[in-house]
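User: I'm preparing a small set of examples for a lab meeting where we compare how different chains pack in three dimensions. I only have the primary sequence for this one, and I'd like the structure in token form so I can line it up with the others. Please keep the answer compact; I'll paste it straight into my notes.
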Amino acid sequence: MELVVKRFGELTVEELYEILRLRVDIFVLEQRCLYPEIDGRDPAAWHVFFREKGAIKAYLRVLPPGVSFPEAALGRVLAAERRRGLGSRIVAEGIRIAREKLGAEVLMLEAQTYARGLYEKAGFRQVSEEFLEDGIPHILMRRDGREQEERI
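Assistant: Understood. Below is the structure token output for the 152-residue chain.
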């Protein structure tokens, strides 16, 4: 499995098409949630994905501070094939890329509540009450890399 990390302008047309197709398939169609998936934040993001045999298997975007939150953020986390550990792997890569490319120690994300455990395993902790985002229960989560390092 190949890890790919690119800025928006570096994505090929085919990669961008596959990323947007997967995001719409999972977040709009599968979850039956009508919302503007193409939200204007992609041009600012680092796009991180695993590719195998030409197909994207897991994806997320890393957003710089000030785009979604005052802190850097992870978003649009997905695994095209579930129960293979790809979610955990792509989150770990997202954390690494946020540190490497943005110098980010603190990361935020809006997690669908059912996925809380995935993010807790990666060092995120819940920092809000549950809220509805486009009809789906979510929570805000934060990861402070300095706290993580101090625990080791």
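A couple of notes for your slides: Helices lie at 13-30, 86-102, 116-121, 145-151. Residues 13-30 form the longest helix (18 residues).

User: Perfect, thanks.
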